[in-house]
Amino acid sequence: MPRISKTTELQTVITTFEMTPGTCQDLLDALTDAYEKFIRHQQGFIAAGLHVNDAQTRIANYSQWQRREDFQAMLRTDEMRKRNREISALCKSFEPVMYEVSEVF
Fold first, then answer.
1. What is the mean pLDDT of residues 19-37?
2. In its keyword annotation, does this UniProt entry include rRNA-binding (predicted)?
3. Which entry of 23, 31, 70, 71 is 20 to 30 Å from 97 by CA?
4. pTM of the complete model
């Protein structure tokens, strides 16, 4: 379960994916498979969530890691590089961005 707190020293990564409604479910399936079989087992992984907009043209992914380096190490694995090529083929674009929590309400 994600922990959202200003005092927690975690790395938050928010990734947005842009796709067509016709590829949304395929992309969601690929992302779910990646989390279930690989990402959640990587060092430093804490939690993640996948969110789909009503039009099925965007998926937002919120993930948390112990350290920035843990997330970066996961991305550099052969397994994730292969998966990212497949994910990229299913969407127009995707961009992971690292954030720090500024406020919580």
1. 98
2. no
3. 23
4. 0.92
